Amino acid sequence: MGFFDFLKKTEKAGEPAVEAVEPVSVYESKDEVIVSAKLPGVSKEEISLHITPANITLKVARKAGKEHEEQAAGAYSYSAQSEFKSFSETVAFPAQVQPRAAKASFKNGVLEIRIPKHRVQPKGTFIHVR
């Protein structure tokens, strides 16, 4: 099963229809790497990020909402499957970045992480001609 396959719209009887989610996108500008992911229905508390100079790991630990638990209270259940799942994805960066300078925002179901590129100052050296 591929990344986000479980969130593709389903039409099976007895299963809720869920909107499809696009995979993680990575963009590179002159000064930074930008990572974007559409995560509808996910709260920022369910998201965790691990950033290294070479890649980013996005984890979402989804939990059943209270409304699902309230609907099940006092009901006879034939099947009680959770409609939420957890997932993880690691994406490599096109350039080395500075993980400690990363900034993340989550608005309207879209996660955006901006990470400055690692700037290595080229060091010159003197050599002697013999």
Account of the 3D structure:
With about 130 residues, this protein is mostly beta strands. It has a domain at about 20-70 and about 80-115: Immunoglobulin-like (Sandwich), CATH 2.60.40.790. The chain is about 5% helix and about 30% strand. It contains 1 helix and 7 strands. The chain has one helix at about 65-70; strands spanning about 25-30, 30-40, 45-50, 55-60, 85-90, 105, 110-115. It has a 4-stranded antiparallel beta sheet with strand order 1-2-7-6, with no helix packed on it. A 3-stranded antiparallel beta sheet has the order 3-4-5, with no helix packed on it. Strand 6 and strand 7 form a beta hairpin.
Structural class: mainly beta
**CATH class of one domain, anyone?**
Mainly Beta
Distance linking N and C termini: 63 Å
- Our Rg estimate from Cα atoms comes to 21 Å
Kindly state the number of beta strands: 7
**Beta-strand content estimate:** 25-35%
Which stretches are poorly predicted, pLDDT < 50 over at least 5 residues? 1-12, 15-21
CATH topology of one domain: Immunoglobulin-like
Compute the number of helices: 1
Strand order, main sheet: write it out.
1-2-7-6
Q: What's the CATH architecture of one domain?
A: Sandwich
Average pLDDT works out at: 77
Helix content: under 10%
Largest sheet: 4 strands, antiparallel
Order of helices and strands: EEEEHEEE
Shape: elongated
